[in-house]
């Protein structure tokens, strides 16, 4: 049979070649429909340093869910892919590969080294695209960009020059964070502060011309080589007599002054502070106030320079050991006290960062930050999901410092500034005319170009670019909370400055993926998970289901193979449901389905279960769409799971067997049509989350054509709503469940027929569906009436709209039955208390939607009826 599915879901078979077919069919490109509303996303560009990690798989999964749904909803969608050159990380990786062959970058020179980096980029970009394919992400590769593309490079130069001409980019000597391994400057947010074990070294400085000493304490004794002053607080009576005198630095014997400054805290330590302006940010500020000299005592690689005297050439930490030993020998080391303190480390290389005076390029952040803050109070504000991350963004913008943008690297956008021998500097988008000009050797921080990503990828600075006019600002960005400062903030203030608009309307923030113990995944812990390994075992659809359902926006998620097993089992459940339907409805045409659904909607054909499942489908479509629009993918997934597994598979499919095993062919045709329609709609609802297997099944449905990628997303069809059918089948299901529970309690299997009595105001309906009751409960006798005599010895249950009795004389213990009913009574009392508390809350009643309040009132009436019925039954049993 052509439409037959394998008995067991095999992700490898289903996903093989599927992505290539989608690309060949060009289904991921924008529709080009001028009447359709545009919806655009730019992918958070992975850097070309290696393979994708789970965090990026999460980014791409959530964005693919969004763009696939919007595409199916008829939007003119663009998802633009690309990659980031990642200056420091990529250069370090390539240098490490060359080092394996004993080659240093300096041996090759700039141009040949960059050739090697471009080879690396091509290799790993290919790998990343292959991994994107395995993830199934629906990007438009005809628009793929790279941050070092000529078009993006042009945008970078234009932005640099314009900011420079406004005075917002400047070159100057300031204290910056220095990475001695990568030998480059870092911005504040590229420094990770970690707690490490250190020490306070208590050292004496002798007062010039006397035998008196002052005591200072430092965690970095090697920096005394760059001291240019000692300060005390002018109110400190202990040292007033020393102000204006000098101290002699130990070992190197340089004389420096004793000054007063409020930075010296009388209550902290000894009250005497050494000032090393070129290697400490607070000391730098003191030096600026007192016009002190600034002595850099360290080379680019972290070794001591010519200002270090006999320590010249030693690594900074080796120099520390030697200096401490020498101070101890001189008798000027008073004490060493262990301390646990935070020390800055390079986010890229992991080494301890060195605060260091250096000439660098900076962006003045005052006006850029002010504009970004003001924009959040306008209609063009960026909406953060969850909203609390707006506060994170605002707090950073309100406290931002000037941004050091120059990096001492070869891989990246070379700074568009040129110098000549006359000491002149030229800044421009192109090199100056004439001879004798040399371009600045530094490159720009990677985030400088990444900050332009949403609009530079759309053709800017050409504002007449079709993509820029059509798809900018982009609609939604999805990213982790760990790069709000690195990337999100910078995109916002650069976009506002150069386009006058926010770069995107929405920012969906997700958390971090942790291991099963809640630990952050890292190489040092060896607990990282390769998403490609997961896909090889479970398939991309299962991984995507896990990633979309793992947590709420902004929350971390724990990876678990148990959860992956559950995801695979869910897909296999749908697979088997689909096999059952295809085997029973392989020849049903689209016209037959349409005609049957019309009859069901008009109530001229079909039974109550058909109308029930279509009503439940409507409710599911409405709720899933609502949650997807709020980016609550976990909630949407939960709703889908419950509908598919419980209502559709476990109940409706089983209920249809009463028809499918019957003799009425007309009724069978209706049921087949409803089964196909619901399966079709389920696949469409699931497709954005799990694209591969939904396409596989969709193309085998006898009443569909084309790719599910561009199929219409489900909509609520009001003509299918039938509240009576919904309530009736809900009562039927509750009744069947109650019988099964009672049988289990008294160890009476379903194969053994037992008498059953049902007392209900809805006796007519229950009699109409009695074939279902008989099929699923196996009564020896079934009595359904509005009023009937209640047997004395019977197990009972109260459901919505009915009372159920199973006379099981000899199988029940009256006292145990009373005890069971008293537990049930307590349950209903608890439910009543909860609803009464909610309805007694004036704020809830006043602020909640009317339908929400009414729903709680309906619950109250239902619970009260059940409570009263159980209470009366307990009284009857006790009387007898």
Automatic annotation (TrEMBL):
ValRS has two distinct active sites: one for aminoacylation and one for editing. The misactivated threonine is translocated from the active site to the editing site. It catalyses: tRNA(Val) + L-valine + ATP = L-valyl-tRNA(Val) + AMP + diphosphate. Residues 610-754 form the Methionyl/Valyl/Leucyl/Isoleucyl-tRNA synthetase anticodon-binding domain. GO terms for cellular component: cytosol. It is found in: Cytoplasm. Its main location: cytoplasm. HAMAP family: Val_tRNA_synth_type1. Residues 811-880 form a coiled coil. Gene3D superfamilies: HUPs (3.40.50.620), Isoleucyl-tRNA Synthetase, Domain 1 (1.10.730.10), Valyl-tRNA synthetase, C-terminal domain (1.10.287.380), Valyl/Leucyl/Isoleucyl-tRNA synthetase, editing domain (3.90.740.10). GO terms for molecular function: aminoacyl-tRNA deacylase activity; ATP binding; valine-tRNA ligase activity. Its EC number is 6.1.1.9. A motif ('HIGH' region) lies at residues 46-56. Monomer. Residues 18-430, 436-560 form the Aminoacyl-tRNA synthetase class Ia domain. ATP binds at residue 523. This is Valine--tRNA ligase. Catalyzes the attachment of valine to tRNA(Val). As ValRS can inadvertently accommodate and process structurally similar amino acids such as threonine, to avoid such errors, it has a 'posttransfer' editing activity that hydrolyzes mischarged Thr-tRNA(Val) in a tRNA-dependent manner. It comes from Lactococcus lactis subsp. lactis. GO terms for biological process: valyl-tRNA aminoacylation. A motif ('KMSKS' region) lies at residues 520-524. Keywords: Aminoacyl-tRNA synthetase, ATP-binding, Coiled coil, Cytoplasm, Ligase, Nucleotide-binding, Protein biosynthesis. Residues 813-878 form the Valyl-tRNA synthetase tRNA-binding arm domain. Belongs to the class-I aminoacyl-tRNA synthetase family. ValS type 1 subfamily.
């Amino acid at each position: 049979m052509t439409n037959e599915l394998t008995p067991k879901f095999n992700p490898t078979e289903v996903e093989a070649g599927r992505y290539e077919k989608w690309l060949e069919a060009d289904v991921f490109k924008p529709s080009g429909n001028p009447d359709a509303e545009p919806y655009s996303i730019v992918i958070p560009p992975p850097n070309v340093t290696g393979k994708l990690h789970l965090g990026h798989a999460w980014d791409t999964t959530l964005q693919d869910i969004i763009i696939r749904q919007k595409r199916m909803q008829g939007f003119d969608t663009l998802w633009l892919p690309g990659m980031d050159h990642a200056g420091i990380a990529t250069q370090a990786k390539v240098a490490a590969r060359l080092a394996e062959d004993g080659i240093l970058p300096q041996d090759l020179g700039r141009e040949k080294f960059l050739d090697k980096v471009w080879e690396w980029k091509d290799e790993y970009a290919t790998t990343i695209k292959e991994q994107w394919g395995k993830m199934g992400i629906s990007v438009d590769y005809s628009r793929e960009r790279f941050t070092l593309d000529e078009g993006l490079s042009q945008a970078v130069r234009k932005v640099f020059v314009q900011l420079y001409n406004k005075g917002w980019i400047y070159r100057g000597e300031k204290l910056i964070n220095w990475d001695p391994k990568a030998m480059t400057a870092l911005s504040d947010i590229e420094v990770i502060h970690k707690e490490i074990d250190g020490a306070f070294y208590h050292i004496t400085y002798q007062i010039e011309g006397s035998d008196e000493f002052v005591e200072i304490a430092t965690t970095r004794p090697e920096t005394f080589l760059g001291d240019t002053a000692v300060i005390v607080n002018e109110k400190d009576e202990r040292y007033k007599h020393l102000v204006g005198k000098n101290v002699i630095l130990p070992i190197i014997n340089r004389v420096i002054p004793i000054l007063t400054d409020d930075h010296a805290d009388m209550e902290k330590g000894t009250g005497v502070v050494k000032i090393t302006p070129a290697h400490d940010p607070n000391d730098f500020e003191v030096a600026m106030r007192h016009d002190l000299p600034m002595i850099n005592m360290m080379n680019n690689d972290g070794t001591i320079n010519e200002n270090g005297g006999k320590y010249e050439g030693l690594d900074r930490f080796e120099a520390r050991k030697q200096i401490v030993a020498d101070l101890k020998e001189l008798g000027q080391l008073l004490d060493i006290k262990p301390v646990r303190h935070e020390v800055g480390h390079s986010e890229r290389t992991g080494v301890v960062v060195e605060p260091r005076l250096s000439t660098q390029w900076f962006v003045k952040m005052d006006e850029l930050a002010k504009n970004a803050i003001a924009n959040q109070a306008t209609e063009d504000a960026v909406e953060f999901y969850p909203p609390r991350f707006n506060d994170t963004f605002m707090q950073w913008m309100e406290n931002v410092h000037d941004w050091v943008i120059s990096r001492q690297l070869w891989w990246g956008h070379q700074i568009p500034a040129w110098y000549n021998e006359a000491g002149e500097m030229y800044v421009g988008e192109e090199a100056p005319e004439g001879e004798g000009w040399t371009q600045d050797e530094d490159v720009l921080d990677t985030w400088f170009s990444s900050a332009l990503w949403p609009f530079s990828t759309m053709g800017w600075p050409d504002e007449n670019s079709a993509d820029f006019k059509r798809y900018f600002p982009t609609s939604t960005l999805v990213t982790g909370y760990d790069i709000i400062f690195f990337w999100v903030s910078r995109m916002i203030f650069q976009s506002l400055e150069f386009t006058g608009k926010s770069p995107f309307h929405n920012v969906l923030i997700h958390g971090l993926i942790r291991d099963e113990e809640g630990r952050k995944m890292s190489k040092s812990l060896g607990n990282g998970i390769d998403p490609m390994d997961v896909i090889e075992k479970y398939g991309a659809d299962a991984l995507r289901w896990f990633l979309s359902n793992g947590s709420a926006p902004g929350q971390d998620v724990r990876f678990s193979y148990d959860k992956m097993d559950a995801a695979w089992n869910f897909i296999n459940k749908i697979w088997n449901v689909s096999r059952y339907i295809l085997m029973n409805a392989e020849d049903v045409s689209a016209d037959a389905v349409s005609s049957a659904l019309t009859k069901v909607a008009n109530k001229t054909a079909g039974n109550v279960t058909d109308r029930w499942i279509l009503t439940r489908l409507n409710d599911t479509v409405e709720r899933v769409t609502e949650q997807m629009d709020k980016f609550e993918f976990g909630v949407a997934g939960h709703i889908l799971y419950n509908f598919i597994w419980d209502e559709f598979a476990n109940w409706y499919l089983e209920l249809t067997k009463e028809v499918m095993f019957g003799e009425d062919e007309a009724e069978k045709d209706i049921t087949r049509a409803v089964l196909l329609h619901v399966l079709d709609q389920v696949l469409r609802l699931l497709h954005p989350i799990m694209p591969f297997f939904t396409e596989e099944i969709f193309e085998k449905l006898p009443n569909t054509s084309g790719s599910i990628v561009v199929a219409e997303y489900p909509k609520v069809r009001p003509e299918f709503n039938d509240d009576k059918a919904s309530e009736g089948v809900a009562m039927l299901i509750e009744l069947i469940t109650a019988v099964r529970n009672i049988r289990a309690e008294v160890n009476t299997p379903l194969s053994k027929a037992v008498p059953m009595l049902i007392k209900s105001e809805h006796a007519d309906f229950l009699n109409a569906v009695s074939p279902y009751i008989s099929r699923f409960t196996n009564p020896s006798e079934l009595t359904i009436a509005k009023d009937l005599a209640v047997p004395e010895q019977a197990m009972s249950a109260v459901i919505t709209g009915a009372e159920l009795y199973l006379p099981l004389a000899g199988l029940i213990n009256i006292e145990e039955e009373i005890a069971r009913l008293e537990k049930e009574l307590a349950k209903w009392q608890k439910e009543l208390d909860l609803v009464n508390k909610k309805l007694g809350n004036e704020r809830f009643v006043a602020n909640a939607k009317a339908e929400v309040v009414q729903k709680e009132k309906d619950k109250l009436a239902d619970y009260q009826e059940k409570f009263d019925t159980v209470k009366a039954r307990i009284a009857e049993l006790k009387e007898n």
